[in-house]
Structure formats: C-alpha cells, structure tokens
C-alpha cells in the first residue's frame, strides 16, 4: 500500500454521465511519491520507542488474557506464564452470568449498525445538501452546526437524559442509538469533500436527463462521495463501539449495556463489597472487545487518508 | 430538449444553457461558498429552492432532538431549583452564583486547566514529531509506524483505562514487576499526587496517533514545489520544517489543539473508571464533568448540575475560541 494514496474513486470508475475529464480534480494533483533519502537511524530508534509505547499495553492485554486468575497475580506481567488458558477464559467470559457478555456484544453490534450507519447516512445527505443546494435557512444551518461543534457534548448529557426520560426513551436502545446518529464533524467532512469532488456539471447533466434529486444523489453523488463516506463511517463506528458515557447515563438495565459499560461494571464489581473479583474475565473480555474494532479499523483506515486530505483539516 | 417547457426554476435555466453548448464560466451564476480554501474556479451553480431540505432535513431533525432541545432544557433547568416541598421554583441566576463560589467546582476546573497546560502540549508535540518523521522520507516502513501508533485510538477508552489501571497496580502490573525486579518500592502511579500524571499518560496513549494522523494528512497536501524550491535555496531539514512544513499545516495544528482543549475540559472516562481502582485519589468532583455527573445521578441535584455543565461549557468555548483566535493571528503575522 502506498503511503501517498490519493487514488480517487472517480479516477478509476468514471461515471458514464461525465463526458471526459471531471473538473475539480485537477486542482488536487497528487503529490509525487516522496523521494527517499538516506534513512535516519536516530529517527528509526525514536519512532520505534513510540511504537513500543503504543503497543506494549496491547501486548500486555494479549499476554494476560492467556493466564489463569492465579498466574495473573504471581507471574511476570509481560510474558506468558502458567498454563495457556486463553480458550478457557474466552469460554468463561461467554458463560459468566448466564452469557451476558454475548448479549452485550450483540447490543454493541446493533448500536453500531443502526447508530453509526444512521450517522453516516444523515451526515452524507446533509453534507451533500449543504454543498450542492442553496435553500432558505442554509446560513442558519451552518451557524448552528459550527456552533454545535464547539460545545462540549458531555455538557448536554444530563439534560439529554432528563429529556429522553420525559419521552420514555431511557433504558431503551433508542436512547443510545438516536444520539449516536448525529455527527456534526462527519457532516462537516462530507460538506468540504462534496464541494470539490462532485462537479456541478455532472448534476446538471443528470437533471437534464430527467433524473430526480433523490435519484441523482443515490445514483451519481454517492459514488463520488465514497472516500468521505467511509471516513465518516469509520469515525462513527469507532465512536459508537467505544461509547461509554452516554449509555452509562441512559441505561440502567444490564440487558441493554454495550460492551464498554458492561466491562466497566465487571471491573467495578471486584472493588465493591461482596463482589466477586474476576480480573481474568475483564481482561479477556477487553481483548474480545478490542479485536473486532481494531480489525474494522485497520480495514477502513486505508480510506482515511484520501478522505481527510480532501481538505477537512487543511 | 422536450423538457424545456416543463421546468422553470433557476437550475433548469442553467442546464438549458449547458445543453446549448459550451458555457463561458463568467456567464454562470457563481455562488460564494464560505470556505477556508476554494480551489476550483468560480463557476459553481447551486440550486436555489427548497430541494436542499430533503437532504439536510433528516439530520437537522435528529440534531434538534439530541442537541438543541437538551441545550435549551439545560438553560431552563439551571434557572430553577427543587424546593423541599417538592416542585420547582424559579431562582434566576442563583445556581450560577452558587457554582461560581463553589470551591469544589473551581478545584475541578483548576485540575483540568493544569491538565490542559501540561498534557496537551506534550501529546501534540509527540504527535507532531511522529508526523514529521513519517513525512521526512528518512524513515522506512512508514505504514507500519503509522498504523501502530494510530492503533490505540481504536481501543475503547474503557479498555484503555483498564489496561493502564492494571499495569499501574501493584498486584499484577508493570509497577509490581519493576518493584519485584529491582527490589524497590516505586511510588504508586495511583497515589493522590501522581494520579493526574497517570491519567495524562492514558489520554496521551489514546490520542497521540489520532493527532499524528491529522498532522500527517495535512503535511501530505503541502505542494511538492515548495520543497523543491527550498532544496534549491539550500534549506536544511530543520529550516524546511520551520519555514515550510509548520506554517503550511497551521490549520491542522489549530484544529487539533481546539479538539484537545475541548477533550481536556470534558475529561470523564479516565477518572471515572480509575476511581474504582483508586477511590482515595479521585474524589467525586475530580473534573467538572465528573462533578456534574455525580451531582445528577448520585445527588439528584439536576438543576445545580445543569448550571455547572453550562458554566464549564461556556469556559470551554471561550478557551477554544481564544486558541483559534491565537492560531489565526499568528497566521496573519507570518
């Protein structure tokens, strides 16, 4: 994989509607592959130290999820020791408390699919709408959304809870999903991207052919927006999978917990009076929580580059 | 051209013009889009009618429900107080007055301010260093470094805190092993005087890669010609960094700083989860957010909590705005 991956989708699959060159792309000429200079040993060493700092805790997690509860306490923390009980730990994690871990996993997946999927759809629609349409109230929409990005989201958590409680939504999946469906940053990303990536000529040509606005979006605009869309999706998936504060507030029934809240509860259990200490299950559960999101993340991150470089932070 | 008569709006006129032949860019309505960077030539035709609301409407609907309504509700709540008899009575700004003289609130604010002044610069400098190293062309295996450093961002905050919390612990962590190995008694990272440093380390671990990627992406869009020109002028590595790279990515630097400022004021997950491991080091009012949370859900003081949340929100916005302003001013001066 090239580090400089500015390969734009429209470059590879030109739309049939776009005759010839697509304007707007010429301005963002890909930077040529960086010339390789003599590698610096010092940089290599320093960066390796940083990688170690970033990976050692994950290494710790992997190593310790293979240990029994007894060898957790008595062995060197950064190497395997005692009998290899990873599979036993996984089995225990899934069967502890009548298999509630599986329930949490299912909940999390559900929240991610509906919440992050919804967030991506709404942000893409709205970002496209802001970039390509002039409509009454447009300036207000801008002002409100930019203002919203500056306000700390958690400051609103308590009133959000009270409001949702008034609507009878607390302690239901909707109390987690509906707030997860708003991504102001995602909207901003799509807006900036759509402005340059979708030539107005393309839309006009489609209108000329008699296509409706909704159809134009789904058939033409969406494929142009793919890199931005995947970037937003990745952000939303990570945010929803890792969400802790909001579900902690909204949910009181453990049946609806997502994984982070459930794990935190397991972890707190050992320090409560009369609670059973289950560090090996917390550690194995953490590993099982990290693996799917890391995999999804590593898979999606390759699209990040082009999505971000498109100007969001320039 | 048979559809010509059935459509009457501005957009239709534009596409008829388009259909009739090559259009001079200057004859087409150009709409100024407020942007930091307009790369394309000014020949945008944007439709002016209500159609845009089909796209923006759904977002705004959900946005109003989860953002605007709670915002106004919070303001409303903060102006009332629950009376002993039950029921609410209007108290004006009394909750705000109480918050502004509440030593716990200011202690929490002071704590996040220290955190902000120490942790954020360290994290951003590390991220900047890593991004410059990745961009330097003097490093091999760039994708490996990039992914490894970015990976912690995908780790759920809760899990990150648990891993570090266990490693900090004297039972089966890094500290325990160091003590055992060298036969020493290291100060516990979970002790009162070190806990803020320990939290700072966790936050740095979680977000250094994210910030690195923001900087790296910005560095990659610096025009290559600038480097070539610098090379011809005989500029060295550091000269290139300070004269070309850093000024070119100022926008990214400012955005990352603003995000980190907001994140610091919102600090919640790390102290909240570490609390179970170090109950004596982290009081219920450790950060403003934790304080508001505990006031609401442990103390049922929703009105007062709303006032606390609003004040810390306003302070956050002011500081974030000042950071942005500072960044722009430097930009104008350079």
TrEMBL record, chain B:
InterPro entries for this protein: MetI-like, MetI-like_sf, UgpAE/MalFG_permease
Superkingdom of source: Bacteria
Residue span, ABC transmembrane type-1 domain: 109-323
Record keywords: Cell membrane, Membrane, Transmembrane, Transmembrane helix, Transport
Main subcellular localisation: membrane
TM helices/strands, residue ranges: 53-76, 112-132, 144-167, 194-216, 249-268, 302-323
Subcellular location: Cell membrane
Membrane topology term: Multi-pass membrane protein
Similarity comment: Belongs to the binding-protein-dependent transport system permease family.
Protein name as it appears in the record: Lactose transport system permease protein LacF
Organism taxonomic ancestry: Bacteria, Bacillati, Actinomycetota, Actinomycetes, Micrococcales
Underlying gene: lacF_8
